[in-house]
Amino acid sequence: MTWTVEFTPAARREFDRLDGTIQNRVSHKIDQLELGGPQVSGVIILYAAERLYRVRVGDWRIIFEADFKHRVITIAHIAHRSEAYR
């Protein structure tokens, strides 16, 4: 079964501001998340209690929440690694 991927308004703005090449790479990883959910290769748990995860895309990070019951991934933040954890 596939997962539904949603963006917070802030994450959507961050995605829209990315360079086209980076957007394509991030889109590819988001497509993988839709197919495999948080079990996709490279996904790391940040805060288990909050169901918060991150996945690397080169120097960029996608931080997201996963709702296993409804199979929904909510992308909360897309940022360069130097700013992703602030």
Task: Describe the overall structure.
By secondary structure, the protein is of the alpha+beta class. The protein has a single domain, classed as RelE-like (YaeB-like fold, 2-Layer Sandwich), CATH 3.30.2310. A 5-stranded mixed β-sheet has the order 1-5-4-3-2. The mean pLDDT is 93.
Distance between the termini: 33 Å
**What top-tier CATH class fits best?**
Alpha Beta
Principal-axes geometry comes out as: globular
Examine the secondary-structure arrangement and name the CATH architecture.
2-Layer Sandwich
* Class per helix and strand makeup: alpha+beta
Overall pLDDT metric:
93
Task: Briefly note the CATH topology name.
Answer: YaeB-like fold
Strand order in space, largest sheet: 1-5-4-3-2
Radius of gyration: 12 Å
Q: Unreliable runs, pLDDT <50, ≥5 residues?
A: none
Helix proportion of residues, in percent? Answer: 25-40%
CATH level-four homologous superfamily name: RelE-like
The H/E string reads EHHEEEE
The domain tally reads 1
User: Count the helices. How many?
Assistant: 2
Instruction: Report the biggest beta sheet as strand number plus sense, adding barrel if it closes.
Output: 5 strands, mixed
What share of residues are in beta strands? 35-45%
Secondary structure topology:
Elements: E1 4-7, H1 9-17, H2 20-36, E2 43-47, E3 52-57, E4 60-67, E5 72-80
Parallel strand pairs: 1-5
Antiparallel strand pairs: 2-3, 3-4, 4-5
Could you list some keywords that capture this structure?
single chain; 86 residues; alpha+beta; YaeB-like fold; 5 strands; 37% strand
